[in-house]
Amino acid sequence: MGKAADQSEFDRRQIVVARRLGTYITETTRLVGCSRSAVVSIHTKWINDGDASSRRQGVGCSRVIKEKGRRRLSRLVKQNRRQTLAQLTAQYNAGPRASVSEHTVQRTLLDMGLCSRRPTRMPLLTKRHRQLRLEWAREHRDWIMDEWKRVAWSDESRFLIHHVNGRVRVRHLPGEQLLLSCTAGHTQADGGGIMLWGTFSWAALGPVVVVEQTMKAANYLNIIADQL
């Protein structure tokens, strides 16, 4: 007679129903055509798990890059986040362990959450710039709404007519996009564009002014005097 592992889903359901109706084990084995141990095993599984199914969760293929290798791969990424997949694979294979393919490295990186993304664009700020901005924020953090309503905000920006879009990629985990190694600095480039100045406040939206000259302190004050 068949063992528990050999029983179909239909036979398993028959065993459970028969036992729930009070059918003796011997009679159930004759009805289904299986061994006594199969009836006991399947019925016990249903009592304990609420399910007599034979479906088992597959374990899948074993990892080619084990936990130690994954930690090493993570260190290689953090050493230079701009490396290509080919460069990372070459560096990993330079170690003492067995060589792996680019596909394996890519699959492992995706599983670790280290996807390839474009670097976050942010202004190039020196240490002095960051310090001044922090001091300004601390000085004004207790301002109330009426005080902010009296402030006019202004800025200028150059809009490029011909823009070259780079294809630099970095790998980082969620929340790491503002790390210095994950960003790409940019400046307001000269040539092939137009410089515009604008302002706004709580009460109104100011005009947009075309800046013909290099924006210096004197030019900035002249624009402020003319527009505000």
From TrEMBL:
Gene Ontology MF: a single term: DNA binding
UniProt-listed SUPFAM superfamilies: Homeodomain-like
Domain (Transposase Tc1-like) ranges: 70-142
GO cellular component: nucleus
InterPro entries: Homeodomain-like_sf (IPR009057), RNaseH_sf (IPR036397), Transposase_5 (IPR052338), Transposase_Tc1-like (IPR002492)
BP term (GO), one: DNA integration
One Pfam family here: HTH_Tnp_Tc3_2
Compartment(s): Nucleus
Domain of life where this protein originates: Eukaryota
Primary location: nucleus
Protein's name according to its UniProt entry: Transposable element Tcb1 transposase
Organism of this sequence: Araneus ventricosus
